[in-house]
Hints:
By secondary structure, this protein is α+β, with helices and mostly antiparallel strands. It has 13 helices and 8 strands. The longest helix is centred in the last third of the chain and has 35 residues, at 304-338.
Amino acid sequence: xxxxxxxxxxxxxxxxxxxxxxxxxxxxxxxxxxxxxxxxxxxxxxxxxxxxxxxxxxxxxxxxxxxxxxxxxxxxxxxxxxxxxxxxxxxxxxxxxxxxxxxxxxxxxxxxxxxxxxxxxxxxxxxxxxxxxxxxxxxxxxxxxxxxxxxxxxxxxxxxxxxxxxxxxxxxxxxxxxxxxxxxxxxxxxxxxxxxxxxxxxxxxxxxxxxxxxxxxxxxxxxxxxxxxxxxxxxxxxxxxxxxxxxxxxxxxxxxxxxxxxxxxxxxxxxxxxxxxxxxxxxxxxxxxxxxxxxxxxxxxxxxxxxxxxxxxxxxxxxxxxxxxxxxxxxxxxxxxxx
Length: 339
């Protein structure tokens, strides 16, 4: 989600859903920015767009705003820190079974980081894209607290069922994905976790009983380098992910280039000149209009098939005529802009 802040005080969410109203918003911001209080602000939120064609926020708003991008964490270490950031020292100490609660809470954070980050591996991570979110983790921790307080012993099987079939499993629609989710919990939520004898991932054992800052320090010190092994996947699983990431990076860099290299002599071609070339190419390829009078005179009997053919010829003439008109108008505009 991206935040745009301007000189006013208000909060507008999801402005990308009101495309037609955005020009009016731009005018209002210009009007109320004059003589307003120095500490007055407007906060607007919008989702990032996938393609340049879907950029609908007016340029005036973008130029007068401070853009703040809230990017999701990438990698196991960042995701685990982010999951643990949803709690504090008071939350860790709120349960009477403190040792069990801390151990399972940390394991739940690791589980949440795994299921959230597996999405980057595409179909190898999950067969479908599921909306796992922080709310699932918070509710799971609340359920964990209630069950530990209500039972003399840790109900391991009950907890795994609630987490895997209801809290996180409620998002899952594929049977194999559900089976995978349950398998994770069977490995990560078990009695050996409290005894400190469980390994959450290759080279990453469960942490000892410590405080909130200690858990963050343990992640920084003990977390192995980023690898598909941390998610229970083969190293080849990241080939597709890295390929997609590289393609997106180079595509973004390419789109940011202000000029393109010319085909001859290494000369540079401005965007206007490139558009002019495309316009000329399209105009050359457009066919000549059908001479409807000549075609009709050659026909002796107008069958239903021929009548449909005449109608299609007329529509084709209209289409090519509109294309020629709009392309010539564009060419005229380009000539004016370059003079």
